[in-house]
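Components:
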Amino acid sequence: MKALKTHTGTLMPLDRANIDTDAIIPKQFLKRIEKSGYGKFLFFDWRFNEDGIENAEFILNREPYRNATVLLTRDNFGCGSSREHAPWAIEDYGFRVILASSFADIFYNNCFKNGILPIQLPKEQIEELFSKVSAQPEYTLTVDLESQEIRDSNGMTKHFEVDDYRKHMLLEGMDEISATIRHEKQIDAFEQQHRLYYSLQ
Amino acid sequence: MGKTLYEKIWDRHVVAQQPEQPDILYIDLHLVHEVTSPQAFDGLRQAGRNVRRPDRTLATMDHSIPTLNRDQPFEDEIAQKQVEALRKNCEDFGIKLFDLFHKQQGIVHIIAPELGLTQPGQTIVCGDSHTATHGAFGTLAFGIGTSEVEHVLATQTLKQSKSKTMAIEFQGQLPTGTSAKDLILALIGRYGHDFATGYTIEYRGEAIRKLSMEERMTVCNMSIEIGARAGMIAPDETTFAYLLGKSYVPEGEQWEQAQAEWKELFSDEDAAFDKVVEFDCGRVEPQVTWGTNPGMVVSVNGQVPALEDLSMEQKKIAESALAYMGLEPGVRIKDIEIDTVFIGSCTNGRIEDLREAAAVVDGYRIKGGIRALVVPGSQAVKAQAESENLDRIFKDAGFEWREAGCSMCLGMNPDIAKPGERVASTSNRNFEGRQGRQSRSHLVSPAMAAAAAITGRFTDVRDWPLRTGEGVTG
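Structure:
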């Protein structure tokens, strides 16, 4: 997994609450068996009209946001389906950081496994960032995971919370499976004493 | 201090605890389907890893498969490839697969309970957010992403941090003519779509005790729609009666032993929850969603919100939802006309759901111009329904009777609602585009969906004149 220590990029405001993973990537793209190449399907129904032509109204299709790498949004981002295709699409498009007032649990968890940092900030701070980007459309943020801070070029600094384990995972680009396999003996021992009442074989 | 049901199950599954890290939690049953697993199996191959416990892993096909003409190649080549990938992966790694023509094939959350694989006290995961369904048996069951699917395949464990706990105390009884679906929709409507984010819910109270296992599954199934990754109900005599005699449930002495163990699975009286919520069931009416998330819901006798009553923030959200839904503020729910009816899904695709819908349909014909599908949740549900002649009731009324799968709940297969089509659906999500691009979903119970198919609009099923056994007359 890609590590993330610091990141600087253009902020794209997506002013909407409750953006679900069906909207992030619609179902028809979940039939692919590959893990890459989902960026072109990100926000598909909003980004493209029914004839397949870009929807000029959608913010991702407007400058300076085509190459934005920091996403600003509102409450309950990533709700609904557990599809990891959602973070795959976000990461593949080029976003590395998401700022929102809240995230859905499964999506939040999936982000950390894919080199994306989801940052939860209080509502007022999210509102403040929406105001800033509205006043200055080409607004750049720097995110420093080590110090848990976001900064802009005007001297703004904000602290954010992230649990130590996930922070470590992202800073190191850690392979979680390898780490767990180191506990194989404990898993063996657990299975010896753990009783289940079904057998599939 | 005592423990909650959640804590009891958690503690019995901790493999290792390390400072500053999530616990390593053992997974008793891993359910796999075609959509969220191919990349996980590829990951195993790339790393040269094996599936640790194929005997604790069960695979089926449900999400992207057609519900018609299964003997022919899929219309959709990409879906066909995905299904073939699952076949190959199960073969390569020695995993039991209920393939397309297997008599146990069906939606993953329907088949595990009906086979008796879902048992109290277990930890169950699946790459699907509706995994909480299994919580109805007093299991800790939750949805995971594909990275975690790979983690479970490789290690039979997950790294997990405990969630907060929430007790939802249902008070009073669910009124006659309302269903478990109405109960859970009313709850989500009361508290909102993300109310329980970060929590595991335990549903409690008299109304829950009186629900059948299938009704409890409907309630737990929609836990994610109120934001909770998992929802659970302590097992009781209803649970044990349901389990006894199921294919994978032990018999004799083992059954006695299992039951004794399962009887310990309840929250102690002095256990503390992080949050306790009380909800009065006594006034629940049949529910219909009007917007684009399951929390946007009212009684069938209600109306779409008038925007002036809402806060600025809520107003903006409602406006956008109503624009998508093609509805005017303040319109009566009973005046909304529908085009399509879908009865099925892991929420409402079990035999009791089909019986409930068939009782309403019996003796009637669907309104002209309406497309109506019944998609049983599993082949076993389908066979049972056919043995009770429910298929005849549906077909005589003009419904299409399909093979088992997820179907129009998420429209990954050819069962898609067209742009602008308005669907009365027994499924779990009314998100934009969920059942097809620009389609409009209204979530309801099976009985409400059946009534809507006949009248062409939302109808209070409590006033429905049953014509049981009278034959089709109108």
